[in-house]
Amino acid sequence: MTTTKTKTKTTTAEATAGDTGASVPGPLVRMEGLRVSFPGAPRPAVDGVSLAIGPGECVALVGESGSGKSVTSRSLIGLAGARARVSARTLEVAGADAAGFGERQWRAVRGRRIAMVFQDALTALDPLRTVGAEIAEAARLGGTAGPDTAARVVELLTAVGVPEPEARRTQYPHQLSGGLRQRALIASALAADAPLLIADEPTTALDAIVQAQILALLGRLKDEGRGLLLVSHDLAVVAQVADRVLVLRRGEVVESGPAGRVLSAPEHPYTRMLLDAVPSGRPPARPAQAAPGAPDAGEAAPLLSGRGLVKSFAPGGPRALDEVGFTLRAGEALGVVGESGSGKTTLARIAMGLTRPDAGEVLLRGRPWSALPERRRRAERSAIRFVQQDPYASADPRFTVARIIGEALPGLRRGERARRCAELLDQVGLSADLLARRPHQLSGGQRQRVAIARALAGRPQVLVCDEPVSALDVSVQAQVLELLDRLRRERGIALLFITHDLAVVRQVADRVLIMRGGSVVEEGETERIFKAPAHPYTRALLDAVLRLPGADGADGTGGAHRAGGAHGTDVTGREDPEQDTEHVAGQDGEHVTKGER
Amino acid sequence: MSTVTALLDRPAAATARRGALLRSPARLAPLVLLAAVALVLVFPGMFATHAPEATDVAAALRPPGAAHWLGTDQLGRDVWSRLVHGTRLSLLIAVGATLIGVGGGALLGLVAGCGGQRVDFALMRVVDVLLGFPELLLALVVVALLGGGTVNVAIAIGTAGVPHYARLVRGQARLVLRSEYVEAARVLGVPAWRSVLRHVLPNVGGPLVVLASIGLGSAIISGSGLSVLGLGPVPPEADWGSMVADGKDFLQTAWWISIAPGLAVSVVVVCTTLIGRSLQLRAVR
Amino acid sequence: MSDRARLVPRRRVPPWARFVARRLAAGLVVVWGTLTVTFFALHLAPGDIVDGLIGPGAAATPALRDQVIAENGLDDPLLVQYGRQLAQLASGGLGWSYQLNEPIERLLGSQLGPTVELAVSALITALVLAVLAATLTAGRGRVVRGAAGLAELLMVSMPSFWLGIILLTVFSYRLHALPSIGADGPAALVLPTLALALPLAGVLAQVIRQELESADGRPFVLTARSRGLGATAVLLRHTLRHALLPLTTLAGFVLGSLFGGAVLVENIFTRPGLGRVLANAVGSRDLPVVSALVVISSAAFVLINTLVDVLHPLIDPRLREGGTA
């Protein structure tokens, strides 16, 4: 960074800073042939990405983890990292050549010309400061604070649909619900009135209903004339707001074009693969019938059933589970759907005999299960197995794959055990070469397959899957779901499938249980629930599902428009921020009335 | 020890970026140095130039030179030779203390971590109370009760380390027991005691070795500290700390008597700390 | 603990007051536990308790023995003696040192000042040095960080007594710049303060630097920078607060290392103070003095930790409201 250069650059930056972004005819940013590399990495993190964004336009960067999408977006504000080597044929920010920008010029760009919204407001806002202080800081840096900073903060919070802005201003991020936090974060990004907003996975940390609302807010900002760069792994999210889409893979653009074209008629196989992998909410192609060898589903005695299950974690505290019952027959797949705090994980743990219910009972094959002492339950554990959410956490880091699976095969001799392990790996589509590896040497998908192989070791009749794919990349998700479905079809293993994702459940489950606040609000055949939801909350959930254009059951415009009227509805009284998501759908009524109209 | 545990207690801080200090030559150097120290410990005769107890009043308080590499003390004893012979006591006290601390701490920690809630509560309250005391104070109390001397100093320092090791082991044990992989094992029908053997012990052992290797350094500091206060080995036996104490009154005229053994302590502590840290970084990775 | 608190019916006591009261009550239990353990350790330890109380330093004439037995009521049952000791402590009495022939509370009272003076000045020095070193080196190039790491390693590994000896040799005996012994005036405080503060500063600097660097990668820092905040402003307004937070959890450790260090430093610099008293008491096995110091030190620890517990939620809003979120 030479000083002479710095000075001249500053003047250019300031000269353009006078214009308001919307009136500039040219693009807000333009980059050609962006290349970002990190010392020590075998290949560049980003290689040859080109894009331009104009006012009122939304460009989406789509890719899986490690695709370079975040690095690309951060290069636009000079925050790719201290060790990053950034080069480009053209890098224009607000009409100025940013190629030689030093820290000082970048700081003039950040916030004022380009603002950024990150994934999780809980960590993206300073947890030690009030949201008001954060927004005020942004406004002051942008020179838009005015004489009355507090009034400006309230104005900004109002603009993003935060109710009671006066009160919210003085609260800390952890005191707000996920949706409100994210809105506050967006407010801080808008503080300096930047014409371009970069949103890096802005809804990934949110529950479905809130996600739809935040996307609607972003859509509105775009309609007001702001440029938007949306970075996401989720094609369904992208489909809601993007005008143009760039698909990234290993730092290179594999496909780009208008959103409608790319999402409906992808040219590159990778894009197609990503699209296919999106759990699109299509009904399963297979007939939802019991597997060979399993008794006829209608008459069979329930394999696993629970009734009157109650659990609260603090004596006298709120019930995590309140009078919940379920029935799982042999060879059947039962989906349990709910947002965070619905009690679905507690249900899974009670079904596994890991948590003791306060009241009610779980029966396995018609015999007591949850009421047994652990010692007696142990003998029957091989019939019911658990697939946990995070396959990395569920394997001892010191163990090899052989030992991980071998733990489920007690009493076998060494040679026999090795043979069985290889066989099990084969059943989940992995090669026996992996037996000597440790968890950190496996990919996410491989780890979850190993976890499934371990679960299969005792020839179980039931697999309880707790969000088994939510820690995985989309393309891997689809493969793991396919594997679970195959196991059910071919081997008649019943699935109790816990998830927050309605689209996933539609692919896997015969019947669905919708949970909310510890209770079951609706239960029924999967197709019936999707076609004719009876309970308002189910309808709200279904409305919030983001669909790709042209996907089955959607009207092509996607869910965002329907949720579009819902600005500012994730609102509740101050007293109980944690419960917000639940109030949202039920009490605020936006979704509910939509559904009933 | 307390210096070190303070850092280890907080895994976030302990898992700092790898590297910085620990490029490979830096990783090798402390090992080589410690190996040399071990050699001195086993074969002091090979390295000493004089008999450590041989007094020569005529040659008292000589500065370092060709005849006496590190000079002589007030009785004309060769400082270098005393240093060489003092290695054994200094390190034996430290190693003994560390073993006592690790053994006692591991036992307490495992019982608390794997035992029932009430056992855990009772034990950890005791540990909390003990942790409230400066380690040196705890060691001093033990010395006050038992009296000074080599063995008692080792016992005192070891005892003072017990609560630190106990807390680490207990914390780790809890962490592992609550981990999803132990839960996975439970779901597979693995009995709890087997999980303790199979998952908890190996996963506790690693951090314990790390803490012990760093704790060894603090034990040397504490041991020599007690000796400086005149509570350590009884003359004519001398460790590095008691040499420092001997020279304390001659600083004005003969700084080398105290500075040399202090330097030895520092060098060994730097080595054990470095080794402990590189072990730690390896464990983290 | 918190579960039980929730069951207690609500009165109109502000939550923070209840919180402080609960902490102090828990602290009292700790002090009481300490006293109990020392009492029984003293009385049940091998050897005659009469000799233990008198210590080897004073001539244990039969007359003195009888006096000790009578004064301490050693013929009473142990539990009666224990109760009496509790009552004595409650009224501020710490016992009698037969070796020094002085009531212990008076002995300690006269020595408390110099130690507190030393500890406070060392604490401030260490904090200032650590924050400076950490903020100046955090996130810098490899050379700077390597050098800082090395300096910290040396500080941490050097025994404080050795550091004190080096300081004495160089500044007092070679340069004659500063006094070598005593506690008269600020000049006499400089070297002991450094000997006590430098090792502590090494530890604290490591912690702060690691916190700063890990805070640097956190999303809220990225957000702040994406607003156009400069690196220095990010440091002052955001990361430094986060980096200093964990220091509060180290308060107990800091107190301990200050007191432990004071024992040695006061000895090396021949300074009056509690550390010297303790070292002498251990050396002469003056058990009444040692156990009084143990009780005092546990009370100090409890006080500091209560203070930290009370301050912590003020610094970190996430800890307020009984830990919701």
From TrEMBL, chain A:
<keyword id="KW-0547">Nucleotide-binding</keyword>
<feature type="compositionally biased region" description="Low complexity">
    <location>
        <begin position="287"/>
        <end position="299"/>
    </location>
</feature>
<feature type="domain" description="ABC transporter">
    <location>
        <begin position="304"/>
        <end position="542"/>
    </location>
</feature>
<feature type="compositionally biased region" description="Low complexity">
    <location>
        <begin position="1"/>
        <end position="17"/>
    </location>
</feature>
<dbReference type="InterPro" id="IPR013563">
    <property type="entry name" value="Oligopep_ABC_C"/>
</dbReference>
<dbReference type="InterPro" id="IPR003593">
    <property type="entry name" value="AAA+_ATPase"/>
</dbReference>
<keyword id="KW-0067">ATP-binding</keyword>
<feature type="domain" description="ABC transporter">
    <location>
        <begin position="29"/>
        <end position="275"/>
    </location>
</feature>
<keyword id="KW-0813">Transport</keyword>
<dbReference type="GO" id="GO:0005524">
    <property type="term" value="F:ATP binding"/>
</dbReference>
<comment type="similarity">
    <text>Belongs to the ABC transporter superfamily.</text>
</comment>
<dbReference type="InterPro" id="IPR027417">
    <property type="entry name" value="P-loop_NTPase"/>
</dbReference>
<protein>
    <submittedName>
        <fullName>ABC transporter ATP-binding protein</fullName>
    </submittedName>
</protein>
<feature type="region of interest" description="Disordered">
    <location>
        <begin position="279"/>
        <end position="299"/>
    </location>
</feature>
<feature type="region of interest" description="Disordered">
    <location>
        <begin position="553"/>
        <end position="597"/>
    </location>
</feature>
From TrEMBL, chain B:
<feature type="domain" description="ABC transmembrane type-1">
    <location>
        <begin position="87"/>
        <end position="276"/>
    </location>
</feature>
<keyword id="KW-1003">Cell membrane</keyword>
<feature type="transmembrane region" description="Helical">
    <location>
        <begin position="254"/>
        <end position="275"/>
    </location>
</feature>
<keyword id="KW-0472">Membrane</keyword>
<protein>
    <submittedName>
        <fullName>ABC transporter permease</fullName>
    </submittedName>
</protein>
<dbReference type="InterPro" id="IPR035906">
    <property type="entry name" value="MetI-like_sf"/>
</dbReference>
<keyword id="KW-0813">Transport</keyword>
<dbReference type="InterPro" id="IPR050366">
    <property type="entry name" value="BP-dependent_transpt_permease"/>
</dbReference>
<keyword id="KW-0812">Transmembrane</keyword>
<dbReference type="Pfam" id="PF00528">
    <property type="entry name" value="BPD_transp_1"/>
</dbReference>
<comment type="similarity">
    <text>Belongs to the binding-protein-dependent transport system permease family.</text>
</comment>
<feature type="transmembrane region" description="Helical">
    <location>
        <begin position="28"/>
        <end position="47"/>
    </location>
</feature>
<feature type="transmembrane region" description="Helical">
    <location>
        <begin position="89"/>
        <end position="114"/>
    </location>
</feature>
<dbReference type="InterPro" id="IPR000515">
    <property type="entry name" value="MetI-like"/>
</dbReference>
<keyword id="KW-1133">Transmembrane helix</keyword>
TrEMBL record, chain C:
<dbReference type="Pfam" id="PF00528">
    <property type="entry name" value="BPD_transp_1"/>
</dbReference>
<keyword id="KW-1003">Cell membrane</keyword>
<keyword id="KW-0472">Membrane</keyword>
<protein>
    <submittedName>
        <fullName>ABC transporter permease</fullName>
    </submittedName>
</protein>
<dbReference type="InterPro" id="IPR000515">
    <property type="entry name" value="MetI-like"/>
</dbReference>
<feature type="transmembrane region" description="Helical">
    <location>
        <begin position="187"/>
        <end position="208"/>
    </location>
</feature>
<feature type="transmembrane region" description="Helical">
    <location>
        <begin position="20"/>
        <end position="42"/>
    </location>
</feature>
<dbReference type="InterPro" id="IPR035906">
    <property type="entry name" value="MetI-like_sf"/>
</dbReference>
<keyword id="KW-0812">Transmembrane</keyword>
<comment type="similarity">
    <text>Belongs to the binding-protein-dependent transport system permease family.</text>
</comment>
<feature type="domain" description="ABC transmembrane type-1">
    <location>
        <begin position="112"/>
        <end position="308"/>
    </location>
</feature>
<keyword id="KW-0813">Transport</keyword>
<feature type="transmembrane region" description="Helical">
    <location>
        <begin position="150"/>
        <end position="175"/>
    </location>
</feature>
<feature type="transmembrane region" description="Helical">
    <location>
        <begin position="118"/>
        <end position="138"/>
    </location>
</feature>
<feature type="transmembrane region" description="Helical">
    <location>
        <begin position="244"/>
        <end position="269"/>
    </location>
</feature>
